[in-house]
Design a protein that fits this description.
By secondary structure, the protein is mostly helical. The protein has one domain. The protein has 5 helices and no strands. It has helices at 2-10, 21-47, 55-72, 74-87, 103-112. α2 (21-47) runs antiparallel to α3. The longest helix is centred in the N-terminal third of the chain and has 27 residues, at 21-47. The chain is elongated.
Length: 130
């Protein structure tokens, strides 16, 4: 799971490659775990916060850290989804379904679960042979 999560962050702007189902779902799982932990810490800090305590500053720092993480996470999540669509044999433009409420998420979930579609052989550098 850590390897897939590392690949997720290393492919920050990589919209051209492919991502296997296992790489995709392990990265999603790791990202979900990190998000849950971050949300839990922020919620606990909010619950125990009072304006006159020095923990108020810590809460603001935690909230800022959470926002930075969520904004920094936006591009690699789109890149991972584009690579997964491409690996499953679908056009990358289907990523725009993520902006269609509910039905777009359901359609993308089904597409992300599709097996890898091998249309052409790859050489040892994982590039299509011409």
């Amino acid at each position: 799971m850590f390897k897939a999560y590392k690949k997720y962050w290393m492919g920050y702007f990589d919209f051209t490659g492919r991502s296997s189902r296992s790489d995709y779902w392990l990265a999603v799982l790791a990202n979900t775990i990190v998000t849950i932990i971050l949300f839990t810490v922020v919620i606990v800090a909010i619950v125990f916060d009072s304006p006159d305590s020095h923990y108020h500053i810590i809460l603001k720092l935690l909230y800022g850290l959470a926002m930075v993480y969520f904004f920094a996470n936006y591009i690699p999540s789109i890149a991972l989804q584009v690579r997964r669509l491409r690996d499953a044999g679908f056009h990358w433009a289907l990523i725009f379904l993520r902006y269609a409420p509910v039905i777009g998420d359901i359609v993308l979930l089904v597409l992300f679960c599709q097996p890898t579609k091998v249309e052409f052989p790859f050489n040892q550098f994982n590039n299509p042979q011409q």
